[in-house]
Amino acid sequence: MTIYYGDEYGMQGGADPDNRRTFDWSQATTANSAVALTQKLIAIRNQYPALRTGSFMTLITDDTNQIYAFGRFDQTNRIAVVLNNDSVSHTVTVPVWQLSMANGSTVTDQLSGVVYTVQNGVVTVTVDGHYGAILAQ
């Protein structure tokens, strides 16, 4: 994945040669929610090496509800990432047992701070439209 300049604040563009406009520095502050989210995502990625170099596993592909979930894991952390590409919220049951997350253990959504308990090998989360959850253990 590549982040081009301007992506962090939602810079618009069209077809070539309008695909990369002049960078609007007035938008490049954490007052812009897209910039703040980008900074948060970078910090989470930096905090968990498993997100950069860990093993990868697909957990869910649901084309009907536009949900995709995958796991990244290493010797230290188990992380499930749930992405909702639909415009509405969906409740998703994530099979975290595939990441060796034990029943009774907890995971924390790094985006919202909500803590979930693994029950029967799964964690159930509600993910807003066009958003995600990063469940780290």
Q: What labels describe this entry?
A:
single chain, 137 residues, 14% helix, alpha+beta, 8 strands, two-stranded antiparallel sheet, elongated
Order of helices and strands: HHEEEEEEEE
Number of strands: 8
Sheet bearing the most strands, described?
A: 6 strands, antiparallel
What is the structural class?
A: alpha+beta
In whole angstroms, how far apart are the ends? 24 Å
Strand content: 25-35%
Radius of gyration: 17 Å
The global form is elongated
Overall mean pLDDT score? Answer: 92
- Count of alpha and pi helical runs: 2
Which regions are unreliable across 5 or more consecutive residues at pLDDT < 50? Answer: none
The helix content, as a percent range, equals 10-25%
Structure explained in plain terms:
The protein is α+β, with helices and mostly antiparallel strands and about 140 residues long. About 15% of the residues lie in helices and about 35% in strands. It has 2 helices and 8 strands, in the order H-H-E-E-E-E-E-E-E-E. The strands form 2 sheets. The protein has a 6-stranded antiparallel β-sheet with strand order 1-2-3-8-5-6. Strands 4-7 form a two-stranded antiparallel sheet. It is elongated, with a radius of gyration of 17 Å. The model has no long low-confidence stretch (mean pLDDT about 90).
